Sugar kinase
Amino acid sequence: VVVCVGQVVTDHTFRVDEVEPPPSKTTARGYAPSVGGMAANAAIAVVRLGGAALFWGRVGRDEAGEELRHVLEAEGVDASGLVMAEGARTPLSAVIVDKRGERSIVTYRGERLPTDPSALPLERLAEAGALLCDPRWPEAAELAFRAARARGLASALDAEKSEERVLRQLVPLADHVIFAKTGLTIFAPNLPPEEGLARALTTGPLALAAVTLGEKGTDWRCPGMERAATRPAFPVEATNTTGAGDVFHGAYTLAIAEGQGVEEALRFASAAGALRARDGRTPDRAMLEELLAGDTD
Ligand code: ADP
């Protein structure tokens, strides 16, 4: 079981040929709403890949919030830790994907969402094999990380772009910290990525600091390593890279919960991220195992 804590939003995805510079009008070739948000996508990935996931997050008690809860449950995620707040508005994103699969995202983070995490069912960490948090509900992430550390439960942070203060707060509390490129730049401005990862390792008892670099793969570093290593990406033709990072984080944390080592978990997660980028959908376990079996690396 992986407990996933953080963001859930409705993604409104528009497919276009080109994103024109403003002022402009563009006609979409296709449109689909779906569940998005880092921790929610990761939770769905955990289930698709054969694990069980609990999702803890916050939405408004509105139509969009009800729909997100319904979709998470339909995906097989235990959403009983989803806080639905009266008077709050559920976050949403506009995702524009061009014909090369590159995306532009505008996110509305909702309004009047509760900050107090005390409603979360922390006792359920007892069933978990690992914890994954994103930085979009920092109070909840901090509470969950501290509880996990007290129990000796392995934890991972999806260190996406967010306020520097939030990254500084959360990085020392997680065992495995996986930055997005912009997250690492905010955490360690003016440092080359390799040294930024080294700095992250000095903040607490971390087992791994890594940064995902899309098709360039993942640079990673564990305590005691002279320098960072690169886990190359699996070569695929990307059609939609939305959520590749989220799926990567979900897969990585599932691998840790299953007892895989860091290198093995990075390889497993890279395969999951690559398939997501190729197909625009989260792969199932059989697809992932097939890709891993065909890879002699
Ligand atoms: P984010 O979505 O957070 O920006 P990335 O784009 O870095 O994250 O993707 C996360 C991981 O997913 C990468 O480290 C890589 O392993 C995999 N991935 C992403 N895009 C591609 C791609 N075009 N080809 C192969 N693998 C990819």
The chain has nine helices and 13 strands.
